[in-house]
Design brief:
about 15% strand, alpha+beta, 3 strands, about 110 residues, 2 domains, binds zinc ion
Length: about 110
């Protein structure tokens, strides 16, 4: 039999003098440091959105879909949409798309 021991330390001061302190809203175990009295989640979950979903949301944002529309369609907070949109530059600048539209309009 193989067993693993996990030693939790305070995220603020690094002390091992911590104790359980209830649960978070998502059911995760919370802890409280007895040295500095800070509270934290013992094993926080990572990002819950996969990269494909993020790419879809950012693509909608870059296609000038409204923030409210993205929020309703994808169920993501508007602040998250803005944060994801800021991290990635637009694949094509807006003036390039406008020029392509003008060219398409003029050729007809
Ligand atoms: Zn501490």
């Amino acid at each position: 039999m193989l067993s693993t021991t996990i030693v939790h330390v305070c995220l603020c001061c690094g002390s091992q003098r911590i104790r359980k302190n209830g649960h978070a809203d998502n059911g995760a175990q919370r802890a409280k440091c007895l040295e500095c009295a800070s509270t934290f989640i013992l094993q926080p979950k990572g990002a819950c959105y996969d990269q494909k979903f993020k790419d879809q949301v950012v693509a909608a944002y870059q296609d000038r879909m409204s923030i409210r529309g993205i929020t309703c369609t994808f169920g993501v907070c508007y602040k998250t949409v803005l944060r994801w949109g800021e991290k990635r530059p637009a694949s094509r600048p807006l003036w390039t798309r406008c020029r392509a539209l003008k060219t398409a309009t003029c050729s007809n």
